[in-house]
């Protein structure tokens, strides 16, 4: 028998979920998004890309909870419906599900309905069905026939609305038509514009329809929520580390004007900033399981591991809401010579000598380099405020995009505009504090345990995560 006992013990049993629907509605895309991986299955615009049933497993802390089965599309629901009705007319079988079982068992390999038979076999082996709907399509006869056939299986069905962004009218029409089939436990789950809340709602609807699996699904919900929060926090902390690394960068800068030396120093700083951002970009993609090999597929504006819009490109200030007049046409300047003793204002040699004379050992130990540099007429070359602001805003915008990007997305990821992203409160004070601690450029136990550093990191991370749901 293909049909399983719905009342069997499920304390340790895996829940089997069949992902079904018409061709090209996003079945493989749904599973990719739930797995957070671009490696499952094949996605193409052509119909019938999935030709065989493929399986993936979701676990909670190494404990397998459910199997997802990606099924071929139901390409000829009309012919299947006609065949089943003929079988019903001449069969003595009393239950509709027995008609489906008979069909799945006796279809030959070369039968025109073999594709549909693969789907039916998996439906009968599963505990629940996710019926994927492309809401951009009108409710045609083929969808009605598919639903009529699937309901014969006597399995719970959750209609899943895909590609819903910007299609509220079509979504409402689909809800109305499904109500006629007494299907009200529907779900909005866009495989392109991902929302973790939608994923949680999917598991909760399964809990409602499959009471014996409630505790197992709750374990999965709790684990996936913890994993998701850790993922987002890791991304935010990585961005904070980038800001710390660049803000703490410094090298001495002679007071005398030397164009060649100044140009070389700026080139070194530019190179440092670009490479630091490049490493951060690579790590963010890896955190959200978008590898560098996926960049082209995902249409992320990156070339050879670097942003296509360079951080020092003309116009980048305006793109990130930092239009400061003519400077916007020049891009971020990166280098600025500042006197770190007074946060960028000129101190003067006489004042520096007075500070040196009156300083205790602890003060001299902390600010001795700055005092001596000022006495010698030297300033420090650091990343300027504009560069740091763009770094923060661009990574913040990318983080939000990655958090809400399904692994089936094929559209271009637009991160060339900041969409009104905001800097943390007291930004200048945060950056000023970082500039005063060049040793913080590299992670260390003493740095990470320093209360001042912890406070700065918390503010940087908090602003990255407070404007949208985790």
Summarize the structure.
This protein has 470 residues and is an alpha/beta fold.
What descriptive keywords fit this protein?
11 strands; 2 domains; six-stranded mixed β-sheet
Which H/E pattern describes the elements? EHEEHHHEHEHEHHEHHEEHEHHEHHHH
Strand share of the residues? 5-15%
CATH homologous superfamily of the largest domain, by name? P-loop containing nucleotide triphosphate hydrolases
**What is the percent of helical residues?**
40-55%
Q: What's the level 1 CATH class of the largest domain?
A: Alpha Beta
Q: What is the fold named in CATH at topology level of the largest domain?
A: Rossmann fold
Please tell me how large the radius of gyration is.
30 Å
Q: Low-confidence parts lasting 5 or more residues at pLDDT below 50?
A: 1-9, 42-49, 326-330, 337-353
The count of domains is 2
For the terminal residues, how far apart are their CA atoms?
44 Å
CATH architectural label of the largest domain: 3-Layer(aba) Sandwich
User: In terms of structural class, how would the helical and strand content be classed?
Assistant: alpha/beta
The mean pLDDT is 78
Number of helices: 17
The strands making up the biggest β-sheet line up spatially as: 2-3-1-4-5-6
Shape: elongated
* Largest sheet descriptor: 6 strands, mixed
Q: Total strand count, please? A: 11
């Amino acid at each position: 028998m293909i049909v399983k006992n719905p009342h069997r013990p499920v304390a340790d049993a895996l829940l089997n979920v069949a992902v079904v629907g018409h061709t090209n509605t996003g079945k493989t895309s749904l599973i990719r998004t739930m797995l957070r991986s671009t490696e499952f299955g094949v996605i193409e615009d052509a119909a019938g890309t999935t030709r065989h049933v493929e399986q993936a497993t979701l676990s909670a802390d190494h404990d397998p909870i459910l199997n997802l089965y990606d099924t071929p599309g139901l390409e000829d629901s009309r012919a299947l419906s006609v065949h089943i009705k003929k079988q019903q007319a001449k069969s003595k079988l009393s239950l509709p599900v027995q008609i489906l079982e008979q069909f799945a068992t006796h279809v030959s390999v070369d039968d025109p309905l073999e594709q549909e038979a693969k789907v039916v076999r998996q439906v009968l082996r599963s505990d629940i069905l996710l019926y994927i709907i492309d809401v951009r399509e009108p409710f045609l006869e083929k969808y009605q026939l598919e639903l009529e056939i699937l309901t014969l299986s006597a399995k719970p069905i959750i209609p899943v609305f895909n590609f819903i962004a910007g299609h509220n009218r079509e979504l409402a029409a689909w809800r109305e038509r499904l109500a006629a089939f007494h299907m009200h436990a529907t779900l909005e789950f866009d495989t392109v514009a991902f929302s973790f809340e939608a994923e949680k709602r999917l598991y909760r609807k399964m809990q409602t329809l499959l009471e014996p699996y409630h505790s197992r699904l709750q374990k999965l919900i709790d684990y996936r929520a913890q994993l998701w929060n850790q993922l987002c926090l890791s991304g935010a902390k990585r961005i904070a580390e980038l800001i710390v690394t660049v803000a703490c960068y410094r090298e001495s800068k002679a007071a005398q004007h030397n164009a060649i030396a100044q140009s070389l120093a700026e080139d070194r700083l530019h190179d440092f900033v670009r490479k630091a951002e490049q490493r951060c970009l690579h790590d963010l993609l890896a955190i959200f399981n978008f590898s560098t090999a996926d960049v082209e597929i995902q249409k992320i504006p990156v070339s050879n591991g670097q942003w296509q819009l360079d951080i020092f490109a003309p116009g980048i200030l305006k793109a990130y809401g930092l239009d400061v007049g003519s400077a916007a046409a020049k891009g971020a300047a990166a280098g600025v010579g500042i006197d770190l003793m007074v946060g960028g204002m000129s101190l003067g040699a006489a004042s520096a000598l007075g500070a040196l004379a009156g300083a205790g050992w602890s003060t001299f130990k902390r600010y001795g380099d700055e005092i001596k540099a000022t006495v010698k007429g030297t300033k420090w070359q650091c990343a300027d405020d504009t560069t740091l602001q763009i770094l923060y805003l661009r990574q913040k915008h990318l983080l939000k995009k990655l958090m809400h990007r399904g692994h089936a997305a094929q559209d271009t990821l637009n991160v060339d505009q900041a969409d009104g992203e905001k800097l943390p409160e007291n930004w200048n004070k945060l950056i000023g504090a970082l500039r005063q601690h060049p040793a913080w450029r590299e992670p260390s136990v003493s740095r990470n345990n320093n209360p001042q550093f912890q406070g700065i990191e918390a503010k940087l991370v908090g602003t990255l995560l407070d404007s949208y749901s985790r």
